[in-house]
Amino acid sequence: MASVVSNGLNALSKQVVRCRLCPRLVAWREEVARTKRASFEAQTYWGRPVPSFGDPEARIVVLGLAPAAHGGNRTGRVFTGDRSGDWLFRAMHRAGLANQPVSTHRGDGLRLDDVYVAAAVRCAPPANRPTPLERDTCLPYFVRELELLRRASVIVCLGAFAWDAALRAVGHLGHTTSPKPRFGHGTTAAVGPYVLLGSYHPSQQNTFTGKLTQPMLDDVFTKALSLTDGVS
Questions:
Q1: How far apart are CA 49 and CA 53, in angstroms?
Q2: What is residue 65's three-state secondary structure?
Q3: If both were cysteines, with which of 42, 81, 98, 199 could 93 make a disulfide (CB 3.0 to 4.6 Å apart)?
Q4: How far is Cα 176 from Cα 166, in angstroms, rounded to an integer?
Q5: Cα–Cα distance measured from residue 22 to residue 138, given in angstroms and rounded to the nearest whole number
Q6: For the segment 37-92, what is each residue's pLDDT rounded down to a tens digit?
Q7: Cα(202)–Cα(220) distance, rounded to whole angstroms?
Q8: Which residues sit opposite 156 in a β-bridge?
Q9: What is the 3-class SS of 11-62, one letter each residue?
Q10: 156-183 pLDDT, tens per residue?
């Protein structure tokens, strides 16, 4: 079963990396990869859509917004090489979901256990703000991932954008709820076989201002694990 899921996810990742459906995002991600940030001038940027990664047997799915221009768009792995990822992987390491607390590049030895990490939009967007059309164009990739991740039962949504994308994705799978549940940090919503769990995004805007603290993020993953109890 695991090999079938892995093969399906690998095939989907190859499809994602080839995607050129959103002209604005294609132009931006490639421009950033050409011009680079001065501190990364010697590095070769990925400059393509960034695939998801993690445990094919995961019960927890973490959904972010989009790759950072000089993070995932540089390294080729979502949340890798940026400060949001630093916060996320430290929290997952403390929760026993990651084998190390840092992630700087693909091939750095990071392994995830019982968790799969994705982004609602797979390309770095200008000003970190995808449009609703770009979100919806990218949505089928996440829908397909949920179809393949048969053990997934909890979706940790990092921010309101991811919360909305997750609701849309599970809706495409035939699961809806009315009224539409509102996003909030620590909020949960049961939708079909899934529980959506909201968390403020570990962006610098949130972490520098104290809107999101490490204990708050730790609590999210403690809660996510408790929600998977009894899920085989």
A1: 13
A2: coil
A3: 98
A4: 11
A5: 9
A6: 999 999 999 999 999 999 999 999 999 999 999 999 999 999 999 999 999 999 99
A7: 12
A8: 62, 197
A9: HHHHHHHCCCCCHHHHHHHHHHHHHCCHHHCCCCCCCCCCCCEECCCCCEEE
A10: 999 999 999 999 999 999 999 889 999 9
Which residues, including other chains, have CB under 8 Å from residue 149's CB and lie 6 or more apart? 5, 9, 56, 58, 61, 116
Do the strands 60-64 and 154-158 form a parallel or antiparallel pair, or are they unpaired?
A: parallel
Spacing of C-alpha 49 from chain mean position: 13
Buried b (16+ CB within 10 A) or exposed e, 59-94: bbbbbbbbbbbbbbbbbbbbbbbbebbbbbbbbbbe
Residue with tokens 């859509």: 49
- What tokens appear for 150 in the block? 């048969």
- Per-residue pLDDT of 204-217, as tens digits, reads 999 999 999 999 99
φ, ψ of residue 142 in degrees (nearest 5)? -70, -35
Q: Report yes or no: 155 and 195 within 8 Å, Cβ to Cβ.
A: yes
Q: Which residues in 168-191 are b (16+ Cβ under 10 Å) and which e?
A: bbbbeeeeeeeeebebebeeebeb
Q: Is the dihedral of CA 11, 12, 13, 16 positive or negative?
A: positive
Phi/psi at 42 (nearest 5 deg)? -80, -10
Question: Which phi and psi angles does 174 have, rounded to 5°?
Answer: 95, 15
Reported pTM: 0.96
CA quadruple 69, 159, 58, 11: dihedral sign = negative
Give the span between the Cα atoms of 69 and 48, in whole angstroms. Answer: 11
Overall CATH class of domain 2-228: alpha beta
Whole-angstrom distance, CA of residue 187 vs CA of residue 196: 8
